[in-house]
Write a structure and sequence with these properties.
Length: 322
Amino acid sequence: MGRLLIVAAVAAVFLLDLAVGRIWLSLDDMWQVARHGPGAEHWILVYELRLPRIATAVGAGAAFGLAGGICQSLFRNPLAAPEMLGVTAGASLGAVGLVLAGFQGAVVGLGAGCGAILAVVLLLILAGGAPAVTRLILTGVGISLTASALTGLLLSRADDALAGDAMLWLTGSLNGRHWPQARLIWGALLPLLLLSVAGARWLDRLELGDDLAQSLGVPVRMARMVLILLAAALIAAAVSVTGPVGFVGLMAGPIARSLSRHSGPDLIGAALVGALIMVLADLMVTLTAFRVLLPVGIFTGLLGAPWLIWLLWRDTSERRVM
């Protein structure tokens, strides 16, 4: 029931986001586009401008949400975010370096992907052969802080115009996204989603603790490394097309788990909730676009900051009761 509710919400917000803009479309207008194709009056507006942006939002949101669900289950903490792996900061450093060098478009996305891969390789090397959860978190935070410091250093020495472009990318945006970005994120998401669902059994048992998971037949060391690589690949794919959009991964996992009847991780639900959050944020961008389209990361931050405060307050209240 929970998943059906989320799917219905995603579909409703998707259609609303497709209809809203400087030119508002009715259901009949969108039906004419679907029926007549390129011959329809609003074909270019729907198919070439709005649809690829929203498809990118759904794919990237699902990737962020899925990565968040994996990290929160792997670290056994609802406050765990993919940023703890250092992958987001590594991707940001790679992309900002290329933006400041004068590159644009797909090259910047490639730089973000390479930065993310280097960050996770460094994480696995520094964390050691059989990393415990605490060691992974501390190593990931160290990599994240180092990469963020290097990004700040590059920005402080950059030309104002290029620094402005880099800062816009760092906020996370769906503006100007077209079919190449949509194909990229969906081409990466579908196989990674299948692998993540296959690894959900490992996650369910790892939540019980390493010793118990080992006794239940889980190869703890290999499982943890595979799951980290999956989360890193999901983040790399999403960041390469949207930039580092914050809070989506943090919110998606706990919301999906609260709507699920299963006590363990609900990765499909986390992907759906992530997609819903991203499309909802894109709708907020469109509704507030009086003069200029704002970055979508601003609105995910507005949604996520109260959520984080509530999680911290709930955790503090539970500890007081205990």
